Amino acid sequence: MTDFFQESDFQKEKEKEKEKEKEKEKDNIFIEEEEEKLLLKEKQKEIKNSSKDQKPIIKHSKRKTTFFSNVFLNLKTILTPISENVKSTFLTEFEDSFGLDHPTFYQGTYKEAFRFAKESSKFFVVYLHSSDHTSTSDFCLRVLTDENIIAFLNENFIFWGESIRHPSGFLLTNKFFVTTYPFMAVVSTNTRTRSQVVKIFEGQINADQLMTGLISALEENASAISEQRIQENERRSIRQIREQQDREYQESIERDQERQRIEFEQEQLQRIERMEREEKIKRKREKKEGQMLELEQKIQNLKPEPDPKTEEGVIRLRVILPDGDKISRCFKKDWEMKSIFDWVDINSNKTLKPNKYYLVKNYPKTTFSDKSVTFGDAKIENGDSLMAIKK
User: Fold this and answer.
1) Locate the UBX domain: which residues (predicted)?
2) pLDDT at position 6 over 70
């Protein structure tokens, strides 16, 4: 039973701690709230007020409602990047009024500046500027121009400012529940605690007071920043490993693609070479078959050798081949020279190619290439020797 009551007391204490944490969270001011809810409330207030008023001031109510409607429509200026001209409007006006000596303003939207501070593992300082407030000029001329303040802010914080006349600046006055000016807030960018305000400066303040407050904010939240830097380093390390892995994977893909390309080109080249070889063999075979066919036709068309004993006008001729072999045969004088060329083609034992040689008579020196003339016209006599000479 004792254990039961002890356990029950422990649970009650735990529940009390949870309730305390919840109350703490309620007291925290968070920057990333829903902008639409806030603007909707403002708009509903204006509509409610206008409904109570009489007709003479309806025109005034409409003008107010239109103003908040325009603010609502311009809500995206806080959340999305804007042009360089709009980004630099506040800085230009500030420098025109107070000079060039001031902390370095981050040029971009509120969300861009906050993201940059988070990536840099630094606190984010927001300055809301009211040109109509009596303390603003003194703060800008005496505090924001102080060399120590400028150096400390530039080294340890990401500094961003905006005029409350701008829609984004006006919206932030509601987010921070601004009551007076000058206004400056130190915002933690630690991921665990979200975007929590850790220090607020409102109203008239001198350089020493601001410096003390900034140092205090750093010291009190040093562990959070340290933890954030460790987390950011871990994320950066993981990101670098992933990027390295992605690069290696991409390089591997590119190597595979290059290897496949080379293999494909080699295959294509081999295929072309193979086709050329096959085509060459085919042409060679067809040529050989054509030569064989032509040779068979020559054998069929060659006239039988005449007998000099029984026939008139018969001459015997001898042909000396390039390899030194001698062949002889009888022809008739009225036959065309084609008959002796065909006969040489048939009996040259492949030492001569058709139409690639001349027949030459030594005395008188005569070269014969015209196959259409007769032996008689060519003045070839019985017993003549002819030499087969390659062209």
Assistant:
1) 310-388
2) no
> In 10 A of CB 272, how many CB atoms?
10
pLDDT value at 323 more than 60 = yes
Residue 14 has pLDDT above 90, yes or no: no
Q: SS3 sequence, the chain?
A: CHHHHHHHHHHHHHHHHHHHHHHHHHHCCECCCCHHHHHHHHHHHHHHHHHHCCHHHHHHHHHHHHHHHHHHHCCHHHHCCCCHHHHCHHHHHHHHHHCCCCCCECCCCHHHHHHHHHHHCCEEEEEEECCCCCCHHHHHHHHCCCHHHHHHHHHHEEEEEEECCCHHHHHHHHHCCCCCCCEEEEECCCCCCCCEEEEEEECCCCHHHHHHHHHHHHHHCHHHHHHHHHHHHHHHHHHHHHHHHHHHHHHHHHHHHHHHHHHHHHHHHHHHHHHHHHHHHHHHHHHHHHHHHHHHHHHHHCCCCCCCCCCCCEEEEEEECCCCCEEEEEEECCCECHHHHHHHHHHCCCCCCCCCEEEEECCCCEEECCCCCECCCCCCCCCCEEEEEEC
Q: Which residues contact 156 (CB under 8 A, 6 or more apart)?
A: 122, 123, 214, 218
Q: For residue 167, what are its two tokens?
A: 């829609």
- Give the CA count within 13 Å in the CB-facing half-sphere of 116: 14
Higher pLDDT, 84 or 6: 6
Residue 3 burial (C-beta neighbours within 10 Å; 0-12, 13-18, 19+)? exposed
Tell me the per-residue pLDDT of 79-120, one tens digit each, with 9 for 90 and over: 444 334 444 589 999 999 999 999 999 999 999 999 899 888
Q: For all residues of the chain together, what is the average pLDDT?
A: 80
CB 127 within 8 A of CB 159: yes
CA separation, residue 328 to residues 218, 280, 300, 315, 385 (Å): 123, 37, 19, 11, 9
Confidence band for 75, pLDDT divided at 50, 70 and 90: very low
